[in-house]
Amino acid sequence: MTARQNATSSSHDLFEEIVHELQAAEVFFGHGAASAEEETLWLLAHVLKKDPQWVNAHPQVMLTTAQEARLKTLLHQRITRRLPMGYITGTAYFAGHELIADRRALIPRSPFAELIEKRFQPWLGKEQPQRMLDMCTGGGCIAIAMASVFPQAQVDAVDVSADALSLAAENRHKHKLDSRLHLIQSDLFQAVNGRYDVIASNPPYVSVAEYRQLPDEYRHEPPLGLVSEGDGLCLPLEILVQAAGYMTDDGLLFLEVGHSDEALQAALPNVPITWLLFEQSGSGICVFSREELLNYQAEFSRALKALTDTPHES
Ligand SMILES: C[S@@+](CC[C@H](N)C(=O)[O-])C[C@H]1O[C@@H](n2cnc3c(N)ncnc32)[C@H](O)[C@@H]1O
After folding, report:
1. DSSP summary character for residue 111
2. In this structure, what are the phi and psi dihedrals at residue 191, rounded to the nearest 5 degrees?
3. Fewer Cβ atoms within 10 A, N terminus or C terminus of the chain?
4. Domains of the chain listed by start with CATH number
């Protein structure tokens, strides 16, 4: 970027320059923004203390020299350290909500955002869920989005990581959900009680071998949020084995396994899995009724045992 000591630049000019620099540096996109353009709006929004939609709608706003200098410093960090944009700005966006983001948890990017904005349709029908669970909540994005879309619901959110839960607590407070969103520190369902109408879960599902190949941006995120033993499938399969015990009779489990969808299907050859389709982006979320989970419980247990009995790369 050209140095401008005494002048100010328009957000439009800077937008073009930053997009070019991000593309030329071949940074990895996928931590909450799918392109250089989206990341640039995010960065400009942070420096201007506005939201990305506002920046997009005001392309000719002038930045002060100090703002432009700050922009360059942050862009430098993004490129040289491969820091994901969410950790640079300290914010992330999920299902229309601004959240606090930092290294205590992964940066929100799940296709659950679209599913929740669509009120889990058509799966939920006219049901008004009373109790909802976000299993593996991280910084709380799915729980907060569910609590916002379903104002009548009590939402519980589980994570094993005290760090992640402390970030979730800050996000809960930011969204004024202290009375309706309950945070639970638990290894999966160990400390969970009662039954839920909806369980949503985005657990770790990256295999150890895949983790080693990921772009540098992932190194800044807690591995506990990414990696699952057994070719990435142990935690998802544990959830499939246990979830029915925590669901109402008509309850639904929505489980994300991302690009491990084919591996999950291969591990469960006798289970017809319903995969959801997304209009915006993303894939790898499946849905099970409680009845289906009970019908196939032996298959889930068998697949889990096969994975845990097989020695894997550690
Ligand atoms: C993929 S992140 C999902 C975070 C957030 N829900 C999202 O969609 O961005 C998975 C989360 O699972 C948590 N986790 C890992 N193992 C767990 C376990 N055994 N029980 C509960 N949570 C676990 C991690 O700490 C991490 O926050």
Report:
1. T
2. -105, 20
3. C
4. 9-89 (1.10.8.10), 106-309 (3.40.50.150)
Cα 300–200–194 angle (5° rounding)?
A: 80
Q: How do residues 219-241 score in pLDDT, each as one tens digit? A: 999 999 999 999 999 999 999 99
Output the CA–CA distances (angstroms, integers) from residue 70 to 46, 64, 125, 150, 248, in the order listed: 10, 10, 48, 39, 51
Q: What pTM, to 2 d.p., does this model score?
A: 0.94
Q: Which tens digits make up the pLDDT trace of 55-65?
A: 999 988 999 99
Burial class from Cβ neighbours inside 10 Å (0-12, 13-18, 19+) for residue 31 reads buried
133 ligand 1 Cβ < 6 A: no
Q: State the distance from the centre of ligand 1 to the C-alpha of 105, rounded, in angstroms.
A: 8
Please tell me if the CB atom of residue 225 comes closer than 6 angstroms to any atom of ligand 1. yes
Round to whole Å and give the CA distance between 237 and 293.
11
Our answer on whether the CB atom of 136 is closer than 6 Å to any ligand 1 atom is yes
| CA-atom Rg of the chain in angstroms | 21
